[in-house]
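Re: your question about non-specific serine/threonine protein kinase

S., sorry for the slow reply, the queue was backed up all week. Below is exactly what I fed in.
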Amino acid sequence: MNSYGKLDNFRFSSFPNLVHLSLSSSGLYGAIPTHIGALSKLTHHDLSWNTLSGSLPLALANFTQIVKLDISHNYITGELDPQLFTNWTKLTSLQLQYNYFSRDIPLTLGSLNKLNLLCLDSNQLSCSIPSQIGKMRNLVELGLSLNKLSGPIPLTLGYLTCLITLLLHSNRLTSSIPSDVGNLKNVGNCKNLVQLDLGNNNLSGLIPPPIGYWSYLVQLGLDNNYLSSSIPRAIGNCSNLSTLDLSNITLSGLIPPVIDNCSNLTILNLSVNQLSGSMPPEIWRLSHLVELNLEDNNFSGELQQAICEIGSLEHFAAGNNHFTGPILKSLKACASLIIVQLQGNLFVDNITGVFIVHLYPTYIDLSYNGLYGELSPGWAKCSFLISLHLQGNNISGTIPHEFGELIQLGQLDLSSNQLVGEIPKELGNLKGPIPDSMAYGYQGPEIFSNNKGLCGEVKGFPSCFPSPTTTVASPTSTGRTKKGHKVMIFVTVSLCSTVFLACVIVSFLLFSRRKMRNTQIGVGKKKNGDLLSIWNYDGRIAYKDIIKATEDFDIKYCIGTGGYGSVYRAELPTGKTVAFKKLNGLEGEDLAYQKIYGKGKLICVLSNEIEAVELDWIKRVNIIKGVAHALSYMHHDCTLPVIHRDISSNNVLLDSELKAYVSDFGTARLLDPVSSNRTILVGTCGYIAPKLAYSMIVIEKIDVYSFGVVTLATLMGRHPGELLSSLSLPATKTIMLKDVLDPRLSPPTDHIGCSGCGFCSDCGTRVLALRPPISASHGMCFSGTSCFQATISSAL
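Result:
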């Protein structure tokens, strides 16, 4: 189905024997019509990944033969009607996640005794978990995360003896963890819990004793709760554990030596607790460990040289503890380390030699220790270093001029030391765009002198990007030219914040009313007497035209509903098709205006067989360039960086000329340097940076990760879900990008330039500090070098 389609006029009654209907990613909008109930013989129905709105019609109860139903990733609102579930007696899979369902989970769900998959994650459900769920004895996966659920975890979940995945994280659950949950000793062919995530709740009490029975557990998350306990020795029975997150739950005591029984651990997070004692030597025997986080505890003693025996360790964080003794020699042979965070300890060591001998560290923080000696010129060998923090030590001597060779370095803090001499002029070899800030404009271009690589809209410097009227050589022929690529970022809701937009609109309303009153111009009032004003870049549009075009905001014109309002699509008398967002939370009926782009969403174009073939490699490369340009502007050219937080193929719009526009800033945040920048988890599943889900901290790199996924999706013609999953494993072999390109197109020729495409593997790395800034990706996209021979590494 083409983009921006509706189901209203579809004659479902013409297909009374239809059993399988899949309309996923079809660009559908508007409400689900009631006459869809004519498909009474449907067994499989998929409406996922659209922009459907409204509530679920009760006519869906006519699906008496339904086995699998997926309406996830839409904008469905309202309550779940209990009557819907009474006739779905054959249902085995129900996926309603990533919508806006509110209020209660119907008790009638308990009657679906054949159900093995129930996903209600990321909605607005605000009830307690009904005990009736315990009646679904065949349930294998239960997802209720990212809601507003409260109350205790019901004891009846212990009856779910086939349960493999239980996701309850990011709710408001209280009380203790029932000992029956996961106590699945008599499971027959079921293999016990594999994934259990109860993090980000208000749970209290102890870590449940049955943890020792969960021998098949692969992922365990109990983080950010109020569990007062020590690490149970029974954790040693979980030999299949890959991820263990026990951060911020007030753990005390020692790390038990049996931790080495968890030989498959790749991520171990014990940060923000009250653990004490020295590191048991057994912890260094975890040979598959990639991330070890021990920050903000009371650990003491020396760190053994055995650290480097973990040949796969990339991220080692042990800051804000009481570790003592030397440390640099222990880290010297750690060839895999990329992130080192050892700040705020009692290390005393000579820093004169370079303790990191390989080239790949990106983030090093050794601040506020007792390091002494002089800085070595050998630091220049760490060519990928992005951030270096050595403040608060006793380092002496001068700053080596070789530091100017660290071209990737974005943060260097050497304050509160004993350094002498001048700051090397080589540190002034800056390049890249100059921030678009008034603070720079008043000081003149001389403050940027001796930086040959700078660009920007500052007098005396070249522009960073080709202007719309500048012609550049075509990548396919030197004899032809084309217009420089132009990308516009359009903000549907507020770019800065909803409050800012509200203030602008309200101010405009007051000004308009005063002006009309002074000039005695009569104004037609709407039904409730409030004046409606529209803020848009084309000027004012008559209110009566909007009302007429949308039939007074009839639901059939609604193409989406979000946290800030509802979006309506309408064709004005001028022939222009536009979208209006009717904003919530403001007096009157306030709208934001947006142009409807000819091709619609990138995800819809890629899923359409005809349009996807028309989207050749050059056009796809230009789309990637456009998104990179937009994100580069947001991250580097705004006074405060704007983090989108939901970059996905669903939020990249294409006009009739296939120019790319980044849209939907409803989840955007300003990156405030004086704020903690912590947040709840938002975004589109499959595009969310893993580090955001783990740390809940907003930084530019979360957009960079999503950009990497969008880049892959554009080149592959589909979301790279299975590829991302396989590449997350440490042992995954290198995959050539050319081997996963969209098979609907002929293989690209070598002269098609987009090194930014190969760059997507760096953008998508799960190691936060290894992700380059988006400006680097933008630069590579415009470099014109070949990319289709690039590799996608296991860093993704």
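Residues 498 and 722 are 36 Å apart (CA to CA). The two ends are 32 Å apart (CA to CA).

Happy to talk it through on Thursday.
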